[in-house]
């Protein structure tokens, strides 16, 4: 699951978590992980002291008959949203130049911000009884060259999954061989994880219903229900049938977004789809996101489901 930064933060308010969305998404992820007929009582795993709470709450007896969640089925990756983007754009971390004092300071500031968000997300997931562990690409040794991924050690991620944990990764500031440093987006991370782990499907959670043919704020914007990806990486809209199929889909990117926003999301989703893995882009904290997380939209798209499905189309098979 890829939780876009705009889906879990208030992107126009500096370093503010969208607590309501995050709690709903965490609850939905837990529902998608439930297996068997055991108790579904939520037993939290965040035993840290919280503001407004006089003491730490932990009752060991609650875990005696607790049903284990199917944590091996999920990996969570989240964007930065209102965390990190300001620090990165202010200092130019995404452009490189770690030898410059401002860039080096911005690298530190960016990582403080994005890891703060990561901890908040891990804590909310833990309060839902999800055994989540935060994992930073920088700390795991991930790096790039000319802003393209060159090193992504997934051994720690695999060990965490095999040990029954849900890894929670995030967009991060990383070292770059050519320009010294850059920003590695959550969307790029999820593509590399998908190529390695080969999941049944990938869910991108956003702050809009899906991909539109133009900025969704415009009155005539049309939600693209299904996008087909070809072997050469090109893609076309399958549903709905647009009047002008050659018309380029217009995408807007926030001025402070150093990772490419929806442009990067669609590009990475298309590369995931080329692997034969369906990608669902859907609005977070809705009934549609719950159905996507539970795998209920595989195969034929339900008429009452709102979102965008990106799929690989093998032309040789399609033509037979």
TrEMBL record:
Residues 72-282 form the Aspartate/glutamate/uridylate kinase domain. Gene3D superfamilies: Acetylglutamate kinase-like. Substrate binds at residues 80, 85, 186. ATP binds at residues 81, 207, 261, 265. SUPFAM superfamilies: Carbamate kinase-like. It catalyses: isopentenyl phosphate + ATP = isopentenyl diphosphate + ADP. It is an enzyme of class 2 (transferase). CDD domains: AAK_FomA-like (cd04241). Belongs to the isopentenyl phosphate kinase family. This is Isopentenyl phosphate kinase.
């Amino acid at each position: 699951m890829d939780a876009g930064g705009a889906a879990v933060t208030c992107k126009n308010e500096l370093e503010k978590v969208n607590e309501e969305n995050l709690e709903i998404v965490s609850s939905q992820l837990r529902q998608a992980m439930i297996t068997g007929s055991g108790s579904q009582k939520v037993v939290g795993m965040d035993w840290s002291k919280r503001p407004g709470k006089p003491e730490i709450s932990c009752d060991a007896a609650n875990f005696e008959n607790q049903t284990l969640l199917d944590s091996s089925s999920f990996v969570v990756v989240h964007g930065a949203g209102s965390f990190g983007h300001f620090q990165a754009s202010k200092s130019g971390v995404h452009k490189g130049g770690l030898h410059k004092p401002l860039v080096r300071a911005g690298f530190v500031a960016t990582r403080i911000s994005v890891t703060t968000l990561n901890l908040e997300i891990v804590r909310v997931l833990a309060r839902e009884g999800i055994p989540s562990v935060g994992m930073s690409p920088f700390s795991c040794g991930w790096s790039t060259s000319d802003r393209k991924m060159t090193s992504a050690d997934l051994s720690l991620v695999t060990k965490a999954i095999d040990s029954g944990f849900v890894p929670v990764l995030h967009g991060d500031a990383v070292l770059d061989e050519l320009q010294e440093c850059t920003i590695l987006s959550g969307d790029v991370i999820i593509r590399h994880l998908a190529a390695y782990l080969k999941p049944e499907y990938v869910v991108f959670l956003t702050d809009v219903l899906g991909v539109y043919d133009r900025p969704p704020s415009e009155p005539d914007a049309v939600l693209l229900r299904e996008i087909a990806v070809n072997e050469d990486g090109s893609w076309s809209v399958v549903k709905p049938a647009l009047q002008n199929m050659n018309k380029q889909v217009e995408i807007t990117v926030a001025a402070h977004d150093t990772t490419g926003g929806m442009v990067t999301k669609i590009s990475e989703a298309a590369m995931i789809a080329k692997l034969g893995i369906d990608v669902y882009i859907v609005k977070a904290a809705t009934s549609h996101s719950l159905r996507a997380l539970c795998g209920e939209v595989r195969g034929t798209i339900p008429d009452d489901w709102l979102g965008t499905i990106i799929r690989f189309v093998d032309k040789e098979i399609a033509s037979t």
